[in-house]
From TrEMBL:
Organism: Thermogemmatispora argillosa
Pfam families per the UniProt record, alphabetical: Rhodanese
Signal sequence interval, chain numbering: none
Domain annotation Rhodanese: ranges: 31-118
Keywords: Transferase
Protein name (Swiss-Prot/TrEMBL): Sulfurtransferase
Amino acid sequence: MFERFLRRSETGEQAIPTIDVREAWERLASANSNAVLIDVREPWEYRSGHAPRALNIPLGQLGSRVSEVPRDCELLLICLSGHRSAQAARQLQHLGFSRVVNVKGGMARWRLHGLPVE
């Protein structure tokens, strides 16, 4: 993992910050937070249960729906496990978004910790 970070640094690619699901929930629940949760899973996955107030923009549609992504907020990206959301975070960084964070463990861990699901 450290080697991957070094390779990204050497190529000039910015490392993607990650947080765990509890910290993500705390940021979303905070009254003075401007964090937005973007769920990059497919619509059928999203319908099977998602975090409250999460926006569903599937990874494959992110480029064409980038106008729906707020630029003035911290963007917390989530999927099922954390892999697709990390890809989405990198894609958003390349599109000029600077405040992107990957939610480690995704909805699988979110549910495991008993956090709210709609």
